[in-house]
């Protein structure tokens, strides 16, 4: 790569993130051509879990706030999407539905973040835990509008004509609804990650890290702690709203049973497994949450276990994997890989270079010093 391109790649943060996102979208598009509808739904699930985990890693990994209520924020985004796409009426464009879901969840996240701006640690976790418990109850209380225990069914629109034409022109195949939803989910993930990556690398991200590393030092530096915490919570809530809309598109339902405390704990688990503060780690954690349980269940069924026992085997294996990651890779999968790469680069940088050969043909290394050519006496002193 020419020096000019290398310098442009190093200095242009936005361009680098956009290029990586486009390459990732191209890989997903090619992958969708080779999988069936079930795998497409799994890819959609990985995408919306990755979106929510990416927002949570900004809040927890970069700003140091622990939230147990992101499942509730996803519920707000999902119900907003379901109200805009009711059953038997799918005329609203999907991008508009996602945008409105993000704005509604952002408004709720701003109110919650402002109320909890003075809280941190277990106190903030307790406040967001109350949110996670209360939101499904609100859906039950307003059962006539929000569908009660049965929830709201989401009517998916047909695949746009331009998407069908482009798919047929590029691959010669016709895109299904599941493939279209998966493509929309991964496009939303790519846009979200580009925005989150640029925020984390900019001035806003440096403020978040300063508050996380030392509140007193950050305040002495002129950073407003409350504003920093509220902004991180707002960004994280917006990502959760987009993830909730994608969840509603994928399962075609918004019901209280899908947004229990388990979902919030699952998102926090994905962030810890992947590595706090790493968007790539959040995506790795989402992949483990999506593909590991079905794989373990399939292995258990093939081994002769009943369906119930095979399903119970998945949480056990997932727990063992989490314990192994905590013991062997305390910084998470992505964090430990990054630390290993930094150590490897440091070893290569400090590795001794071979010394040039002397006129007598001998070479010098740290283990084999260069032989002296100064004559010495029999007692070992120079003559």
Automatic annotation (TrEMBL):
Enumerate the subcellular locations listed in this protein's record, separating them with semicolons.
Cell membrane
The biased composition feature labelled Low complexity covers 357-373
Q: How does it sit in the membrane?
A: Multi-pass membrane protein
Q: Where are the annotated segments for Disordered? A: 357-383
Question: Which UniProt key words apply to this protein?
Answer: Cell membrane, Membrane, Transmembrane, Transmembrane helix
CDD domains associated with the record: TM_PBP1_LivM_like
Coiled-coil positions? none
Recorded protein name is Branched-chain amino acid ABC transporter permease
